[in-house]
From TrEMBL:
PROSITE patterns: PFKB_KINASES_1 (PS00583). The keyword Transferase applies. It comes from the Bacteria. It comes from Klebsiella pneumoniae. Residues 5-95 form the Carbohydrate kinase PfkB domain. Pfam families: PfkB. This is Sugar kinase. Keywords: Kinase, Transferase. GO terms for molecular function: kinase activity. The keyword Cytoplasm does not apply.
Length: 95
């Protein structure tokens, strides 16, 4: 983590927003969705992404599972040029 300007420590999760969601979603047995997406979320990864996009050399310290959401987070960090040397992928937890 040489020359890192910003270190973000904390949550790195995956959000799965479903769209559209009707007001009466809890009153029906099933509801067709037009879109299901995966996005990164959590205070640390959100801040790390913002700082990196602003041109700062940024690192993330967090822990994720060695699962599909965890790999999604790692891929996101690589695309966003976020240093993940201190990101732990742990096979014993779920992201």
């Amino acid at each position: 983590m040489e020359n890192i300007e910003v270190i973000c420590i904390g949550a790195a999760i995956v959000d799965i927003p479903l769209q559209p969601v009707s007001k009466n979603i809890f009153d029906v047995d099933s509801y067709p969705l037009e879109r299901i997406a995966m996005t990164t979320g959590g205070d640390a990864i959100n801040d790390a992404t913002i700082f990196s996009r602003l041109g700062h050399r940024t690192a993330l310290i967090s822990r994720v599972g060695d699962d599909a959401p965890g790999h999604f987070i790692v891929d996101h960090c690589r695309r966003e040029n976020i240093d993940i040397q201190s990101l732990k992928q742990d096979a014993d937890i779920d992201t």
